[in-house]
Amino acid sequence: MSDETTKTAGFWTWFWDLANPTRFLAIANWLIPVLAIFTCILLAIGLFLGFSAPQDYQQGATVQIMFIHVPASWTAMMCYSVMSISALGSLVWRHPLADVSIRAAAPIGAAFTFLALLTGSLWGKPMWGTWWVWDARLTSVLILFIIYMGLIALSRAIEEPTTAARSLAIITLIGFINIPIIKFSVDWWNTLHQPASVSRLAKPAMDAVFLYPLLTMAIAYTTLFFTLHLLAMRNEILRRRIRSMRMSAARKFDSPSASDRK
Amino acid sequence: MFGDHAAFIVPAYGASVIVIVLLIIWLRIQYSKHQKELLTLEQSGIKRRAVQTPDENSNQ
Q1: H/E element, A67
Q2: Each residue's pLDDT tens digit, A146-179
Q3: Distance between CA A134 and CA A181 in Å, rounded?
């Protein structure tokens, strides 16, 4: 019992220690190169396994597109989930880093959603005979892209960080409803897009020669996302630091001149 | 290498590389820009409040 209490207390101390930007920057500076190296190794292995995989008996060489299309889509949805958890952290605990996390993740999520749509389109043309259909899966991912764009616009429209934090967190949470819709769209509606073939409770419906490169690429994209997210969070912290320094400089500059005017 | 479908596979990989590289370049440019700006601000004698207080955690 007492062990449990110290453990929980330890977690919360760590959790709130992270709120100190200087401490977070120190951790990020250490973690970014480590994650970057991991990502490079995983990408090299994943690409090697992917390019040495045989052609699919139905899809031919276009199965190659799967190795970048599926990880991009997973990352796009994972990024939104990270933003939604951050939004909860921002609203419930008022954790200052949570808001930084949402703002930093939005452009990265938009980029991966764009890649998912583009590679999907390039895969759809030879396989389905069309670049685009307005079916449930494709449309809901397009909506995810539009939500990302909206969040980016909103986060840049409000200058004051604390005012922006609340509205950004609330809109992010509302948008989360789209994530299960994307996930289950292939089961709920009749779509051209194939249903899930990896994350099934039963055995994945895919041969190991395709499954291993796909999983490696998926992990590589995940570590890539967290590397980019840390880079973006570091930038956002510095941007806020610059802003508050400018503000305090302006106040200092302002106060003597204000008294002169009297 | 990819047969008839190279026209779809090559652009898919090409676009992914371009988008990810652009993202990294954009983040690096922002970082160096911010660092330069922080340096100029610090050189002009503007300090962060956190630096001025001896104990950073005392006001939490």
Answers
A1: helix A63-92
A2: 999 999 999 989 878 778 889 999 999 999 999 9
A3: 15
CB-CB neighbors (< 8 A) of B32 in chain A = none
Distance between CA atoms of residues A122 and A62, nearest Å: 9
Q: Are B30 and A233 in contact (CB under 8 A)?
A: no
A61-91 pLDDT, tens per residue?
Answer: 888 999 999 999 999 999 999 999 999 999 9
What is the residue extent of each domain of chain A? 27-191+207-237
More reliable by pLDDT, A160 or A243:
A243
Bridge partner list, A56? A60
Residue A227 to residues A89, A189, A262, B11: CA-CA distances in angstroms? 21, 35, 53, 25
Task: Check if the beta carbon of residue A135 is closer than 8 Å to that of residue A191.
Answer: yes
Contacts of A14 in chain B (CB under 8 A): none
Enter the tokens of residue A172. 């992010």
Among residues 175-204 of chain A, which lie with CB inside 8 Å of chain B? none
> Beta-carbon neighbour count of residue B10 at 10 Å?
14
Contact check, Cβ <8 Å, A108/B24:
no
Q: Are A197 and A206 in contact (CB under 8 A)?
A: yes
Instruction: Return the DSSP state at B8.
Output: H
| Alpha-carbon distance A130 to nearest alpha carbon in chain B (angstroms) | 12
Q: Are B38 and A20 in contact (CB < 8 Å)?
A: no
B chain contacts of residue A55, beta-carbon cutoff 8 Å: 3
